[in-house]
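Sequence design from tokenized structure. All designs in this work follow the same two-part layout: the structure record, then the generated sequence. An example of the structure record is given first.
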């Protein structure tokens, strides 16, 4: 009798764990081809930021254009292999609020993006894994030469995911910025820190992106590039 009661309690416990445990099996399919697309480095003045990047890396970024209605502009440098650096700075566009990512006197990593060939599949897989994912949103900007660039984005949200990268899928007729930006640097490493690293690490594991998240008192991001000047850390 005692054995039967124990067996019943054990089955009930196992079932409760199965119901309450996070779902971890719905990994983003390999066919979606998820990988690091670009790194965002913030600064409070674009010209000064471009000069600092050139001085530190030996590569002069090129201006990419203004983000209408968002109060920001950027400059770009290629990292090769479909990756690039975006320097984000204020555009001083009237009627727009200051983006907090552009409040730094020196170049500071403030975000990153993952590319995908199949954004709907990525969103579906992450939702199946129990993550909150916003809808797919369109975006666009014009380059200084007038050519229009188009893309779609999606992002996760939730506790511990504030530093998670967003997803981007470039338009079919849009050239990838890495192919039309100054070359010379390569991405060596991206490192993340979080007070509670588990949510961000689980998210990255689901995407298949191999970036390690370590425990620290404050959230942080570090980027290492190999450039004509040598190894450079932001």
């Amino acid at each position: 009798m005692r054995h039967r009661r124990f067996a019943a309690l054990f089955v009930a416990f196992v079932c409760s764990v199965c119901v309450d445990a996070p779902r971890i099996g719905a990994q983003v399919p390999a066919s979606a081809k998820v990988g690091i697309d670009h790194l965002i480095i913030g600064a409070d003045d674009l010209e000064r930021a471009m000069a600092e990047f050139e001085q530190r890396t030996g590569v002069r970024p090129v201006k990419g254009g203004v983000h209408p209605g968002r109060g920001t502009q950027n400059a770009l440098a290629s990292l090769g292999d479909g990756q690039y650096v975006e320097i984000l700075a204020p555009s001083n566009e009237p009627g727009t609020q200051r983006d907090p990512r552009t409040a730094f006197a020196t170049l500071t990593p403030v975000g990153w993006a993952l590319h995908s060939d199949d954004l709907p599949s990525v969103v579906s897989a992450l939702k199946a894994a129990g993550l909150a994912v916003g809808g797919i949103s369109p975006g666009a900007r014009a380059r200084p030469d007038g050519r229009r660039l188009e893309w779609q984005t999606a992002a996760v949200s939730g506790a511990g995911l504030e530093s998670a990268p967003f997803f981007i899928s470039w338009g079919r007729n849009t050239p990838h910025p890495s192919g039309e930006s100054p070359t010379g640097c390569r991405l060596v490493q991206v490192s993340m820190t979080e007070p509670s690293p588990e949510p961000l690490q689980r998210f990255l594991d689901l995407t298949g992106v191999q970036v390690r998240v370590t425990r620290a008192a404050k959230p942080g991001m570090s980027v290492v590039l190999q450039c004509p000047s040598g190894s450079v850390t932001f």
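The longest strand covers residues 72-80. We note this feature because it recurs in several other targets discussed in the main text.
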